[in-house]
């Protein structure tokens, strides 16, 4: 990733966080996942090669966000 792509991707992530905070009232207060849910959604070992930012970004919503508590983030 060169400096220009880093800037662009960083801005995309800032927009994602800002959108999340603006729409936090639409998110669940408590996650509907069980402890350990993440283990079966991610590979058991690190990949040999990196993934595209697009795939990583999709995984944020698909894998990470179901376990995030809106209750905690609301007060930050």
From TrEMBL:
Upper lineage: Eukaryota, Metazoa, Spiralia, Lophotrochozoa, Mollusca
One annotated GO molecular function: carboxy-lyase activity
Keyword Lyase: yes
Protein name in the entry: Dopa decarboxylase
Keywords: Decarboxylase, Lyase
GO BP annotations listed: amino acid metabolic process
Superkingdom of this protein's organism: Eukaryota
SUPFAM superfamilies reported for this sequence: PLP-dependent transferases
């Amino acid at each position: 990733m060169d400096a220009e792509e880093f800037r662009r991707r960083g801005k995309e992530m800032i927009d994602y966080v800002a959108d999340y905070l603006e729409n936090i009232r639409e998110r669940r207060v408590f996650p509907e996942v069980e402890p350990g849910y993440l283990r079966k959604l991610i590979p058991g070992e690190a990949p040999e090669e990196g993934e595209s930012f697009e795939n990583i970004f999709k995984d944020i919503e698909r894998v990470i966000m179901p376990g995030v508590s809106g209750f905690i983030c609301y007060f930050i």
